[in-house]
Amino acid sequence: MKKKVITMLALAGCSVGAYAQSNTNVTIYGTVDQYLGYIHSNSGKSVIGVNDGAILRSRLGFRGAEDLGGGYQTTFTLEQGFGANTGALGDSTRLFDRQAWVGLSTPYGEVRIGRQNTEIQQIGGAIDYTERTTFGSIVNTFGVPSRYDNDISFKTKRVAGFQGAAHLALGEQPGGGISQSAVYQLALDYTNGPYRAGYAGLMASPAPSGAVSEKIKYHNLYADYDYGHGKIYLAYVRSNNITANSSGLTAAAILSNTAATGNVFNGTDANALRYFNIYQLSADYRISANLRVGTLYGVIRDTSGSNAGAKGGNVGAYYDLSKRTTLYGFANYMKNDSGAGYRFSGSAGPTANLSGDDVNGRTLIGLQMGILHRF
């Protein structure tokens, strides 16, 4: 841990030195997001605790750009998540677990190489008024593919309201071609005045030795309308990226965001044959310059007939103390079908949570009250 801290400080020092010698502009940034969370199951069990990241996972990052002239720039981002409630790293096996990439920005778009956020992760603000991260967001409860290693991407400049993106995250398996265990992404976003709509999705193939050959897929369509005092959000997801673990019948992703050996799933999980449709409607309203309230409702439908769906939603409020500091509170509800065990989650998984028989087939109620500071 001490070595990691020393390395991060050394990187910051090198960045400052680079700024003094060239046109490189380096920014140190981050967030600290802490909340008091309460979860109750109709099993009779409850849990309360201080958790990290209801809205934004606490993080420390470095980003920069060097002007090369002619509309070209070298860019980079290095970002580490941590739990401010304990001080622990989000992933103790990585120096930068959230992002670690270098890129080249051109007059036509930007190329990036390294560990990057998915386009699905990037559109959180277009999914619902909570940015798709609180307990009550049904899209978040199902699970969101957030980032992958060994990722090569290109994002276009916005033209006539349209912006596109494509990613290829290599699996890097011995003896495999470029497509083996790779994760492909495509995205298209359109904005025009008060309207926004788009698509972000991915597809990944299993290891060829696996008995289950079904690809893992995640498709996300969204549409928003800004009516002046707030926004209305519509979202639809279709995916088969859900399976069971000791926490619940539907509490884990088949395609992991943090696979130690690349972006690999072994093709042995028959749950890849189950597809789910997720529908969510959300809206917010700005009462004053500082106070915003909102609500959402969503449904997960299991199209395989195994009764592994859920439904729920929330109501909540944000109060801005300043441009950088926000107080927030949410009341959340979710009802699991008999074959489902979805659990509440935020931007980071709550350390104080329920699992097993307390979520499988259960109805959950959750409360969150916290503070978010950006720097």
Summarize the structure.
By secondary structure, this protein is mainly beta. The chain has helices at 2-21, 119-122, 138-142; strands spanning 24-41, 46-52, 59-69, 72-83, 88-89, 99-106, 109-117, 147-156, 162-169, 183-192, 195-204, 216-226, 231-239, 243-245, 248-252, 276-286, 291-302, 310-320, 325-336, 363-374.
What is the topological layout?
Elements: H1 2-21, E1 24-41, E2 46-52, E3 59-69, E4 72-83, E5 88-89, E6 99-106, E7 109-117, H2 119-122, H3 138-142, E8 147-156, E9 162-169, E10 183-192, E11 195-204, E12 216-226, E13 231-239, E14 243-245, E15 248-252, E16 276-286, E17 291-302, E18 310-320, E19 325-336, E20 363-374
Antiparallel strand pairs: 1-2, 1-3, 1-20, 3-4, 4-5, 4-6, 6-7, 7-8, 8-9, 9-10, 10-11, 11-12, 12-13, 13-16, 14-15, 16-17, 17-18, 18-19, 19-20
Overall description:
The chain has helices at 2-21, 119-122, 138-142; strands at residues 24-41, 46-52, 59-69, 72-83, 88-89, 99-106, 109-117, 147-156, 162-169, 183-192, 195-204, 216-226, 231-239, 243-245, 248-252, 276-286, 291-302, 310-320, 325-336, 363-374. By secondary structure, it is mainly beta. It has one domain (2-374): Porin, CATH 2.40.160. The chain has a 16-stranded antiparallel beta barrel with strand order 1-3-4-6-7-8-9-10-11-12-13-16-17-18-19-20. Strands 14-15 form a two-stranded antiparallel sheet. The chain is globular, with a radius of gyration of 21 Å.
